[in-house]
Design goal:
Number of strands: 37
Helix content: under 10%
Shape: globular
Structural class: mainly beta
Largest sheet: 28 strands, antiparallel
Strand content: over 45%
Radius of gyration: 27 Å
Number of helices: 3
Distance between the termini: 43 Å
């Protein structure tokens, strides 16, 4: 086996290939995978097909990003992006039966519209024109370490008749994730123990949904779509906390959270021929209502001696329209032009109360706890592209964005923002296995409306102040992507990026003595990402594949307290994921290994570094009694590795370089096992 591994490594480094590559060359430099390529995996849905495309990493897009253009993932269906945002790409792909997929095409983003410019890989899922009914039924049962079994399930159906397709999906997502762990609070620099806590978290999250769509394909540049989604979601956390101070009485603290969300979305689009191309009108409306109730009580022998309660009610709405005209050939150039208009609003009411020793509630005024945030935003864009030679393509474009933002309530703020966002992409695809792309794009980040509103974090005993003066960061982003097919249908890819970022969005001090989301100075971000997807038949593992994804990045910006350069809050310095899978007819198995360090957040008086966990291993085995049925038995966190978090405290703030206290947290959900049954029909 050692010799075989060395042979495979040499083949990768030298760029050797083996016969029987499954992919084919398509128009515009696209790589094609016919449906027969995926039969070895016995997929039941389009989602499982997409996950088996060599070297392709699914990006879901950002549901919370306002507007349509910037929320794109990296998958289109029959050349069109789904006109939905609350339905994730995973949900949309999961309800398309695998037997309705004719082929998969992978190409550069500029082939599929301005939303994907600068992406080296976008996947186009081409569906068959077959009629009739097809669908999938999925049922899952999970068993956590407490012995509780939690069921969930979904059913989706696709019916096609003539030029029309109807898709309906309903489901119940259900998770129960108990955790147990400890907190240790120590004095610094001595390391003396101040307080020990034993905690048990009982976490439940339930979501019921109904979604559907209608599609009509009337020929070239003649189509229409209509989609909707209704969902209700509830998140609950109940924490018991036995507290053992070194000095003082033992306490039995409690923490509870109950979040309830209702959401409705209706969207659609119409495409018609115009001036030798196509004009497309997209409309989308989303309404989301959320109620949050939480409490944190300090108790001695069951008697409440203090604590906090917080209630939050918010309504978040979005209404948008987008008009796009495109043509594949205008004097040798592909052209796309359009406009988008969006109205977004957030109406938030936060009420925080402190409980005294008698149990009376006293209102705590936060800097901005009642506010209505509105944004009227419009953009116009123009993009052109053409082939400079049989192997080189250039794409150019610009977007002009203007918005008017108002904040009303506990504070009054109003401003108008205007940005010009040019871009240039050069793509090189010579004959053979190589492909390279370089891009330079001007980007402007979106503001999170929640950052305007103050609220308490009872789980962390701190206040996150709002900032009505926050403005979006903007950046010049450069990216070089080089990829090569190896070992037949394998792929190796390297991405090198450098971003120069102005007005970095991070955390800043407030006049009230808190800190809040705000803007720092100019910062930089440099990263390298690698993707390797290799077939293992040449080293004697029939039906095997090995995947490797890594990311290393360095960020730097001046800290407002220490005035020294530090990393951006919330960004890890590295991560990697290794996967090994083997498909053997009716049987398959997979092991997946992920790791990453903590992600520090730089608050006014602390450095909070959560999410430390290494290694984290998931595995499953599958049995396929027939082509329509898959039975999967799997386990998450099979090495029983806990997650950790470290908080370092400073007084009065981080301008003092010597911390006075450290809090270490450890949480473990232990091993979770699941059994999943999938059955496709039609």
């Amino acid at each position: 086996m050692g010799n075989r591994v060395r042979v495979a490594a040499a083949a990768l480094l030298l760029g050797c290939s083996v016969p029987a590559a499954a992919q084919q060359a398509g128009p515009g430099g696209r790589t094609l995978y016919e449906a027969a390529y995926f039969e070895r995996y016995s997929p039941s849905s389009a989602l499982e097909i997409v996950r088996r495309v060599p070297g392709f990493v699914l990006e879901l897009g950002a549901e919370d990003v306002r507007g349509f253009g910037q929320a794109a993932g990296n998958v289109v269906i029959n050349g069109n992006r789904p006109s939905s945002k609350s339905d994730t790409l995973e949900a949309i792909l999961a309800r398309i039966p695998a037997n309705r997929v004719a082929r998969v095409e992978v190409g550069t983003g500029d082939l599929f519209g301005s939303e994907f410019s600068g992406r080296a890989q976008v996947l186009n899922l081409v569906l068959t024109s077959g009629g009739g009914l097809a669908g999938t039924v999925t049922a899952t049962a999970r068993r956590d370490y407490t012995g509780q079994i939690t069921p969930e399930g979904s059913v989706s159906a696709l019916y096609r008749r003539g030029a029309s397709s109807f898709n309906l999906s309903a489901g119940y997502n259900n998770s129960h994730t108990p955790e147990e762990g400890i907190d240790d609070v120590t004095a610094l620099p001595s390391g003396a123990l101040l307080e020990h806590r034993r905690k048990i978290n009982d976490i439940s999250e339930r979501e019921a949904f109904l979604s559907g769509s209608w599609e009509h394909q009337g020929g070239a540049n003649r189509g229409a779509h209509l989609n909707f989604r209704v969902e209700r979601e509830r998140f609950e956390l109940d924490q018991t906390n036995d507290v053992f101070p070194v000095r003082g009485p033992i306490r039995d603290d409690r923490l509870g959270q109950d979040y309830r969300t209702r959401e409705f979305e209706l969207g659609g689009d119409v495409t018609r021929p115009l001036w030798g191309g196509a004009i497309k009108l997209i409309g989308l409306a989303t309404r989301r209502h959320r109620k949050e109730a939480e409490f944190s009580f300090n108790r001695i022998q069951g008697d409440v001696i203090g604590g906090y309660e917080q209630n939050v009610e918010s309504q978040r709405d979005e209404t948008l329209g987008r008009l796009v005209w495109s043509t594949p050939n205008a004097g040798g150039w592909s052209v796309e032009a359009g406009v988008e208009a969006v109205l977004n609003s957030l109406d938030s009411d936060v009420n925080l109360f402190e409980l005294d020793e008698q149990g009376d509630r006293v209102r705590v005024d936060l800097p901005i706890d009642q506010a209505v945030v509105k944004e009227w935003r419009g953009e116009a864009f123009y993009n052109v592209g053409r082939s400079l030679s049989p192997t080189v393509r250039i794409d150019l474009g610009f977007t002009f964005e203007a918005s008017r933002l108002t904040v009303r309530g506990d504070t009054e703020a109003e401003r108008t923002l205007r940005f010009l966002k040019p871009k240039a992409v050069l793509d090189w695809r010579p004959k053979g296995p190589w492909h390279a792309q370089v891009s330079l794009i001007r980007t402007v980040a979106q503001l999170d409306f929640e950052d305007f509103i103050s609220s308490a974090e009872l789980t962390n005993d701190r206040v996150n102040a709002g900032n009505a003066d926050l403005v979006p960061q903007r950046a010049w982003e450069g990216l070089l992507t080089v990829e090569r097919t190896v070992l037949g249908d394998g792929l190796a890819k390297v991405e090198l990026g450098y971003n120069l970022i102005e007005k970095v969005q991070d955390r800043v001090p407030t006049p009230e003595g808190f800190d809040a989301p705000g803007n720092l100075g100019t910062g930089r971000q440099a990263f390298v990402k690698t993707t390797v997807d290799l077939p293992l038949g040449s080293v004697g593992i029939k039906g095997g594949r090995f995947t490797w994804n890594t990311m290393f990045q360095d960020t730097s910006v001046e800290d407002p307290y220490t005035h020294r350069n530090r990393r951006f809050s919330g960004l890890t310095s590295w991560s990697y994921e290794l996967g090994l899978r083997q498909d053997l007819g009716k049987f398959a198995w997979s092991v997946n290994y992920t790791a990453s360090p903590r992600e520090p957040y730089y608050w006014r008086d602390e450095i909070d570094a959560p999410n430390g966990r290494e290694p984290f291993i998931n595995a499953f085995v599958e049995y396929r009694p027939d082509r329509a049925t898959t039975i999967t038995l799997g386990a998450d966190n099979i090495l029983d590795v806990p997650g950790t978090r470290t908080r370092i405290f400073f007084a009065p703030d981080r301008s003092n370089p010597d911390p006075y206290q450290r809090e270490f947290r450890e949480r473990n959900g232990h091993v979770t096992a699941y059994l999943r049954f999938k059955r496709s029909f039609g």
